[in-house]
Batch of 4 targets.
Target 1
Amino acid sequence: MKFISTRDLSHAVDFKTALLHGLAPDGGLYIPSEIPRLPPDFFSTIDSMDLHELGFQIIKLFLPDIPESILQKIIEESLSFPIPLKKLNNQTYLLEVFHGPTLAFKDVGARFMARILSYFLNQEKRKISILVATSGDTGSAIAHGFHKMENIDVFVLYPSEKISRLQEQQMTTLGDNIHVLEVLGTFDDCQKLVKQALLDDNLSRHRLLTTANSINITRILAQIIYHSWGVVQLHQLGEKRKPILSVPSGNFGNLTAALYAKRMGIPIQHFIAATNKNAIVPLYLKTGKFKPRASQKTYSNAMDVGNPSNFERMQVLYQHELSQMQAEITGIPISDKETLETIAKTYQATQEILDPHSAVGLAAAEIYQQSFSSNTQPIIVTATAHPAKFQEVITEALKQEIPLPASLQKTLNLKKKTSKILPNYVEFQKILIK
Ligand SMILES: *Cc1c(COP(=O)(O)O)cnc(C)c1O
């Protein structure tokens, strides 16, 4: 299995190169040269399949060179928490991908990438530094995913006093190989420092450097597993019709993984690209024009993305044909007002508390159901985060506070370990070389 650049389909590298570099030299993203099909006998066993077996069956097709016993262990450790499918009403299901350590789906990709990376580094006795600039959620998933992994140092940069206390506590209290730098500046300053370091030849002579955001194909591969797991669970519940998947989207890594699941042969009818008012992809699906712009702030802030990075991967999948993409994906943007209403309405009807991102997914699913009312296919909404991570929004929607899960409560009492730095490259470089 080779991996190729979205910008030059003839530029092929092995998986390890795609993993270590993240981005292709031409600036494109790596994608599998072909999407492997699950073998026909796979489907005769799905009624008794569990999450780990499913994950193994999927990933070994992409990474056939990793010994099976090692791959099995990596999958068990990466998916060490349940990913249940909950029935919300006759037609709608929630796939809860937020029971990991930082209570959002990003744990899956981060944990998987950390372990795969560690496997390759151990083989070569090399060390790597991972640099991540974060405005909140990615940093904590990466910090937890990579905590105590051998041969890996993580440097997380976040803008001082510009993230929530919960987010800050989640990533700054780990220590060990997780080095958290509180930058006295903005998120853009953090990102600039990271980019500068990644391009610094002097530094890369000292050690391997990379980053771990969702441009890395390794994270996407891991996410194929849970979308497939949602469909398998639906089957196990006795619902044999093909579902529609509604995926709350920002950079569109999550939706890309779902599209790959279908290409592998997982029975999926259609996709809903649910966004907030940063509706770049829904607008593209409507007008054929892809117009990135500055992101606008919303209640579903992890989806405030004005230039979705994985759109390139989607374009290649549909051979840059708008009509092909339209045939499989419906884009539906949701306002902040609709997000709050959906949280309130769902709570009243089912006692289920949705986080604002999952609420965007459900609101889009409901709009889809209303506009195609003859369609009674089941819809699976990806529930991307635990509501307790977004206390302020929930309080506004429900006029009541919700209790923090014990794990978060505990985090709040731990001591923060950070170094403060000015947004100054020389200072950052000194820390990296130490
Ligand atoms: C990152 C994130 C998203 C968006 O996922 P993409 O893969 O970037 O589309 C949605 N919800 C939550 C809670 C997130 O953290």
Target 2
Amino acid sequence: MRNDLQPSGIGNEIINIGHANHSRSASAHAPALLKPILDEAIRGFIESSPGSLIDLAEQHGSPLNIVLPHMLKKNVQAFGRVLQAHRVRHAIYYGAKVNKSQALVRAAVECGIGVDVSSLHEMRDALRAGARMADLCATGPAKTSEFHAELLAGAALISVDSAEELSDLIECSATIAPPSRTRLLLRYRPAASEASRFGMGSEDMLSCLQQLVQMKDRFSFEGFHFHLSGYAVETRVQALRELLPLVENARGLGLRPRIIDIGGGMPVRYVDSDDYDAFLQYQCKEHYRNGRVPESFYPYGSRLDAPGWLDALLASPCTASQSVAAWLNDNDLILALEPGRSLADQAAISVFRITRVKQLAGGGHAIFVEGSSFSACETWFNSEFLVDPILISAAEGNDATQAGPVQAYIAGHSCLDDDMITNRLLAFEREPRAGDLLIYANTAGYQMDLLENEFHRHPMPRRIVLTIDAAGRQHISPDD
Ligand SMILES: *Cc1c(COP(=O)(O)O)cnc(C)c1O
């Protein structure tokens, strides 16, 4: 394998490792570059003020997660435009587990959407951010009785995962006698996910519906819910089609379903789709430190972004004569969505400071950063975050000892052999130096804080909020 990058960036400026004059024809086996797609405001922040990023890492430590709540609002608006174009009544719930940032929950509440919570703690964060209980949708298969009690008392919408959970709720309701009827969704398990532990098959759904008919004074059946793994539009359309007879059954029993909640899983595009396809096509085991091509990746270069996905879903045929949108509208149904990752698209960057660059026996380099792969999760799932980091040099100019171009992988600061930020070999035009920064774009969606911990007694990574006003002025504040 050869490295065919041309040196181009020098000094205290951004050198995106995807920037150089990369010629695929020069070497069919060179790994394709994966430049991050960056929102213009974020690009402006990174490019205009590399010095302030160095200062921020100095002040707050490394890794540093910089959260951009205004991006969540932009993402909500983009969904809103699609829903309005299809004239579909809708309710959006921010899937709060995607990121621990309180500022993101607050951004969701401020733009008037609900919050999908799966624990007492997520519920309390949402309330602290100003959400009303009525704007919460509680999901998850293992809600505790304490969580149930608070949801019942506050009249939140509850998605019931199993017949067993419905029994628990009935019991809890008898004990606490909530002030108003409890609003319930029933979570469906599509035929294609028969082995899943989430949701209920048709038989259990029917028996729950029958119970709910008997308890109309205490429970209000609101409709159906599902949340599927994977990112395909078609699996959701298929699940909807399977729900049609259940909607009829419910009506036949005298219930009035109002909501169809299709969960989350709308895809985020992190890198250009053509670059991504080229990457997949040309990658080989030589491109990885451990000589292993991961078996699966998130679809980082998805052709559909989240709004495009929703548009495709709504336009898909649902019945012989109706699209999904038409079916929802003709049946006076509200479409509920619980996007997590797609609402957090572009809503954070993660800054890792380089501690040491070490030359390896085989000729490559290991870059050690202050921070660990727990703050960039993907290698723990035997996969890779297929977005190239942006290198920011701390010092002006080149120094004569710097080799370049070099290939390097990026390791965390722990003593675990598996503590790899990336096993993928990255091409740098010049050897990075201690004190330089690696900026990972778009880490808000399950990357930055899902596994974070205090291993080796390193303190928890800090999270700060960056707001950029209409005039382009930047303001940093704590994320609390
Ligand atoms: C995780 C989850 C979501 C959010 O999923 P994304 O892939 O982040 O959009 C929504 N609903 C439920 C029930 C979930 O478990």
Target 3
Amino acid sequence: MSIANNLQDFNSKVPNTTTLVAVSKTKPNQAILEAYNAGQRIFGENKIQEMVDKHAALPKDIEWHMIGHLQRNKVKYMASFVSLIHGVDSFKTLKEINKQALKHDRSINCLLQVKIATEDTKFGLEFQDVSALLTSSDYKELTNVNVIGLMGMASFTDDLKQVRNEFKTLKTLFDNLKSTQPQFNTLSMGMSSDYEIAIEEGSTMIRVGSAIFGARTYA
Ligand SMILES: *Cc1c(COP(=O)(O)O)cnc(C)c1O
């Protein structure tokens, strides 16, 4: 199957209320262009430098999403163009994004990454920290970030019931926060292995890499 075929297949399966982020990390510009020529405009990367290089080389109407863990000292390199940052897991990082957004006189859309997996290798805020952050007075002073929702990664397991439960708890948190956060419109959950379950559990944005571009040689 070609990248274009894979994308077509995806777009026919996925409801049009679900946004597809094509995760192009480690993949060459040629592969991204192939997806671009098939109509895909949203791409996800997990390393800031790699995304900066690809942004410079590729068509300017691509929307770049940062899906990886953030190194605060590198936020400045993507602040002029990044369209959504999925992996915000501390107030300090949010504050740095705000600072860099201000320099470019723009507002940057962000998602708070919530820890839903049982493994402790996954980054993310604990449930109670999410609402604490959103209601803090420090947060209210950040004029140039727009937190539009949540992101989560399920456990790496064959137990699909567990995966479903983890997505369910994130969706519940999302719905609860919505009452005080009317700007919440994005729930980013689901990857190649579990996007179908994620969509059933209310995901509005899936991040799919290998099912579109083929297996990666490194993570
Ligand atoms: C790599 C990555 C994905 C995509 O993974 P696939 O299994 O290739 O679909 C999704 N989300 C994050 C945060 C990733 O780092």
Target 4
Amino acid sequence: MALAGNILLLLAIAISVNGRGNIDVGSPFGAFLIYHEVHEKGGIPLVYRNEEVFVKGVGNEIIRGINVQDLKGNALAHIKEGGLGYPNVTIELKSGVRGDGYKYLVDVFAI
Ligand SMILES: *[C@@H]1O[C@H](CO)[C@@H](O)[C@H](O)[C@H]1NC(C)=O
């Protein structure tokens, strides 16, 4: 449990250092790009926009790298479930401020 806590803490630090809506964890080196999609939503007054992106490798593939780029630079994203070392990942994409939309490029690498 302590180890899991430490890993979560490291992950949180890795995310906060990158700031804004960007996530860059793991290493794509030697891995294959298994997912590459732009996710975009327009703003609606007073509400946050959000969605969950689920990515799963084929067969026994394990996720080795996750790169989420906040193309508008004012949003928030986090890994909700799975991720590095797992066969799948659920990434939550969210606008940073009420009324704003977002635009993300999501890349996931696996071996
Ligand atoms: C994602 O991977 C985890 C860990 O192997 C597994 O328990 C879970 O069922 C998977 N989720 C889906 C929706 O495939």
